């Protein structure tokens, strides 16, 4: 069973402690060293990196939710009001500014930077943390692919059902004379439009 990546894990904070003093900061003040995050080798990832470190120190971290692709999809389709934000999809805090995958990649890049610069206190510890994050990325991709595959399969089946009456127009025209059938047809079209809309929004939010 696939769960979403737990970006805000203790391993994020461990990366900081695994860095040498020179890599972690340049200040001699111990309090400053404890509070200031290291400089990320990729400036564009600095903010996401800092957010992941901050989350790792908080008690109310995002929780992994174990659910099948079928359960997740049914929840999307049945919800009276669908929130298509990635913070909701990946169980992130509403205040989160960076996608969990970006935070994961920022952590991985920082860990590889420590190894390349030989700036880690323990290469073995950094490798263990990196493996954890790689597994989280794999879970992220697997869950997303499962959701996409199920959504595509669902839409293809509905298209097949829509095509069926077109292959038997004489019967279809006769059925259209039934008011109840016409009502069911209109209701079905509305449902399909809703499904397509929510599927599109869910895919875009992945």
Describe the structure.
There is one protein chain. With 206 residues, the chain is an all-alpha fold. The chain has one domain (10-155). 67% of the residues lie in helices and 0% in strands. The protein is built from ten helices and no strands. It has helices spanning 10-18, 21-24, 30-35, 46-56, 69-78, 86-89, 100-116, 123-166, 169-175, 179-204. The longest helix is centred in the last third of the chain and has 44 residues, at 123-166. The protein starts with 9 loop residues before the first helix and ends with a helix. Mean pLDDT is 79; it is low at 1-9 and 21-30.
| Alpha carbon gap, first and last residue | 18 Å
- The percent of residues in helical segments reads 55-70%
Q: Give the rounded overall mean pLDDT.
A: 79
Round the Cα radius of gyration to an integer and report it.
24 Å
Please give the largest β-sheet: none
Low-confidence stretches: 1-9, 21-30
Number of domains: 1
Short description:
The chain has 206 residues and is mainly alpha-helical. Helices cover 67% and strands 0% of the residues.
Ordered list of secondary-structure elements with their pairings:
Blueprint lengths: L9 H9 L2 H4 L5 H6 L10 H11 L12 H10 L7 H4 L10 H17 L6 H44 L2 H7 L3 H26 L2
Helix pairs in contact: 1-4, 1-8, 4-7, 5-8, 7-8, 8-10
Provide key terms for this protein.
206 residues, 0% strand, disordered N terminus, mainly alpha, 67% helix, 10 helices
């Amino acid at each position: 069973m696939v769960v979403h990546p737990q970006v805000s894990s203790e391993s994020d904070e461990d990366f900081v402690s695994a860095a040498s003093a020179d890599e972690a900061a340049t200040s001699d003040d111990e309090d400053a060293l404890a509070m200031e995050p290291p400089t990320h080798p990729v400036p564009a990832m600095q903010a996401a990196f800092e957010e992941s470190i901050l989350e790792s120190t908080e008690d109310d971290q995002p929780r992994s939710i174990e659910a099948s692709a079928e359960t997740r999809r049914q929840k999307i389709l049945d919800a009276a009001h669908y929130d298509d934000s990635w913070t909701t999809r990946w169980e992130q805090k509403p205040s989160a500014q960076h996608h969990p995958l970006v935070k994961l990649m920022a952590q991985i890049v920082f860990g590889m930077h420590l190894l390349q610069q030989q700036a880690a206190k323990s290469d073995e510890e950094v490798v263990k943390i990196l493996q954890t994050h790689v597994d989280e990325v794999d879970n992220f991709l697997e869950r997303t692919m499962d959701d996409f595959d199920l959504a595509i399969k669902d839409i293809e089946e509905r298209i097949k059902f829509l095509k069926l009456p077109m292959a038997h127009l004489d019967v279809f025209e006769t059925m259209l004379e039934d008011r109840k059938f016409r009502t069911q047809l209109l209701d079905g079209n509305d449902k399909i439009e809703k499904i397509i809309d929510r599927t599109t929004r869910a895919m875009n939010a992945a």
